[in-house]
Amino acid sequence: MKKLILASAFAFVGLTAVAQSGEEVAMSETIVVSATQDSFSEIETSELPEAVSSAVATNYPSATIDKAYVNDQKQYKIEVSLEGGTTGTLYADENGNWIEM
């Protein structure tokens, strides 16, 4: 009987260790995804594709593009300010389609 209780205790501890190890992996994967999303390089606003500039002008007619960034996947991060002083960040692909980050 002692062996059965001892074996059960070891099995519980082993499963707990595996679960904690899995959580650590998930956390490190989250960090990698976050780092990938932030891997934008600043570009001149004049370097934005026409489709992206047009999408901003169409959807946010009072917006001024302050800064622009691009990543390896040709996704654009655009920092804009509105007439009322509100600022924001928009993300678009090279065809001017809005994406969520």
TrEMBL record:
InterPro entries with a match to the protein in the record: TonB_box_CS (IPR010916)
Taxonomic lineage: Bacteria, Pseudomonadati, Bacteroidota, Flavobacteriia, Flavobacteriales
Record key words, sorted: Signal
Transmembrane region(s): none
Protein name per the record: Beta-lactamase-inhibitor-like, PepSY-like
Source organism of this protein record: Cellulophaga baltica
SUPFAM superfamilies: BT0923-like
Highest taxon of the lineage: Bacteria
Keyword Signal appears in the UniProt entry: yes
